[in-house]
Write the structure tokens for this entry.
Amino acid sequence: DIQMTQSPSTLSASVGDRVTITCRASQSISRWLAWYQQKPGKAPKVLIYKASSLESGVPSRFSGSGSGTEFTLTISSLQPDDFATYYCQQYNRFWTFGQGTKVEIK
Amino acid sequence: QVQLVQSGAEVKKPGASVKVSCKASGYTFTDYYLHWVRQAPGQGLEWMGWINPNSGGTDYAQKFQGRVSMTRDTSITTAYVELTTLRSDDTAIYYCATIYGGNSDVGYYFDYWGQGTLVTVSS
């Protein structure tokens, strides 16, 4: 099974900050990686697919990069609506998620 | 518009079974695989398996094989997941999800999700 490891687990930040979350795969997944945002009591919502492609309707302050085993999600200027938990997901072979990164208010 | 609407919360005793439904609308039900993902309280997301609504074919994550069954009723565009021999660590929110926009170029990620169904296993 492909394991996904995110860091950090929790991130404290302020509105306007640039935020970066890292995701590592246990083996190469090419660019078959998605990022999701989840708010309490809600289903996950896809932000990024194929490592760096922005899902329709997602603000451009979200961006993704990486390939192989190392990936990042960047929020260029954190907004109040962005405080949530973020998950990476590989879909190279079956589907597995990282453990999540909670972005909280500093 | 694609919509997945799930059944309501369930409370079950250890050893019992639970069956959760997911009604699809806004697209051709038999054209897109339907997946199930669960999330234990305060925990991450765990893929359970998929069903091909057209053929009824399934593929389950190894962890759940022997205890999970995914079925569908095409006449009412509804998919089901049934989990047997429930344990306390099966307490989770169960989501259905589909890969509507996926293709060989962008790959196959979950772009539409149900609202989730909380299953509580407690004596």
Summary: The longest strand of chain B covers residues 18-25. The mean pLDDT of chain B is 96.
